[in-house]
């Protein structure tokens, strides 16, 4: 399975950088997951399962590596305006369906997701670890049948 390989790659990359982050004294890892790892969305079981596993890896590494002053967090976005989503942005029916399920009634801007990642790397977030932050305009409050 390709998705499992990506999750495995994430874990191996973390293992490789662990010594460097430990030496730094203030390490921070931020994974990018998806709301599909938190609630049901119609994107497929394997995709959702790997995102859920990434959310759990976030918690486990945060617990295991806290002694080394390495924080591990995750950002789980809903739909964001990126080049990958451009075809969907032309589909009015799809946009309306997403907006109807999202309390803020819109897709995220890419910088709204990246700003969350940036914040988690800053000293201002130095007491945040093991968290998956939903950047979803409130979507996970409503769900998506």
TrEMBL record:
Its EC number is 1.1.1.-. Keywords: Membrane, NADP, Oxidoreductase, Transmembrane, Transmembrane helix. It is an enzyme of class 1 (oxidoreductase). The chain crosses the membrane at residues 26-49. PROSITE patterns: ADH_SHORT. The keyword RNA-binding does not apply. It comes from the Eukaryota. GO terms for molecular function: oxidoreductase activity. This is Oxidoreductase. It comes from Helianthus annuus (Common sunflower). The lineage of its organism: Eukaryota, Viridiplantae, Streptophyta, Embryophyta, Tracheophyta.
